Each structure stands twice: as structure tokens, then as C-alpha cells.
Amino acid sequence: MSLPAELKYTSEHEWVAVDGDVARIGITDYAADKLGDVVFVDLPKVGSTVAAGRVVGEIESTKSVGELYAPLDGEVVEANDAVVDDPSLVNADPFGAGWMIVVRFTELPALLTADEYAALIAE
Predict the structure, then answer these.
(1) 3 state SS of 54
(2) Is residue 93 part of a domain?
(3) Strand, coil or helix: 78
(4) Domain tally for the chain?
(5) Which residues neighbour 46 within 8 Å (Cβ) at sequence distance 6 or greater?
């Protein structure tokens, strides 16, 4: 299971790639693996406001339904239509083509490092 060191993580199993005042967000391969084969993804609309810790999307698999949580407050500036059209991208490339949304934020909250997240999922 890979955990890119340059990313930040949440205890709800999202990853966050920060670039200036925007953050690309997806779910970790750990989360994708636990969900199983993803068959449906619902994402917030561009222009919508998200709040840290709130559910902003839904990820359904053949085994269960998972939720996408916003790791920070901000405005959705991009949503990945490719994962809506082809949900299997979440399993095939969770840290790449399987990303979910991009959010413009004003303040970056405390997030987990790769090592901290690895310790969390090892428990």
C-alpha cells in the first residue's frame, strides 16, 4: 500500500495535495481497498462551499457505501468528472486519475503526515 510522503492525510482516509491556496482531494488506496470495487461516485458541484469534517460526496462499491469528507473549508473549483463517468479509476489509481475534487481554501487545518496516517491504519 503506497502513501506518498508529499501528501497530507485525514483520519477519514482522504489525501490532500496542497498547491498554493488550492487542495486536490481524493481517498487513499487503503480506503479504496476497504470499499472494494467502486461502482458509483457522487461529487459536489463546482462553486459549492464545503466545510471541514462535513460529508461532500458519496462513494459506492459492490460491498458498501462510503462518504467523502471535506478535509478543509473552501470552495469547490474543480470536480473530477472522469471518476463520475468511470468509478473504477478510484480503485485503479486513487492518488492519480482517481482524485475527487479541488478546493480553494483560506486556511489549511492540521492534517496527518504519511507516517502519522500509516500509524493510524496499522492500529
Answers:
(1) coil
(2) yes
(3) strand
(4) 1
(5) 76, 77, 78, 79
Residues 6+ away with beta carbon under 8 Å from 33: 1, 91
Tell whether 2 is covered by a domain. Answer: no
Which pLDDT score is estimated for 85? 98
Task: Supply the range of the domain harboring residue 24.
Answer: 8-107
Q: Which pLDDT score is estimated for 123? A: 83
pLDDT < 70: residue spans in the chain? none
Round to whole Å and give the CA distance between 6 and 105.
18
**Structural contact between residues 60 and 91, judged by C-beta atoms closer than 8 angstroms:** no
Instruction: Give tens-digit pLDDT for 28-54.
Output: 999 999 999 999 999 999 999 999 999
pLDDT at res. 58: 97
Asked if residue 113 belongs to a domain, the reply is no
| CATH number for 99 | 2.40.50.100
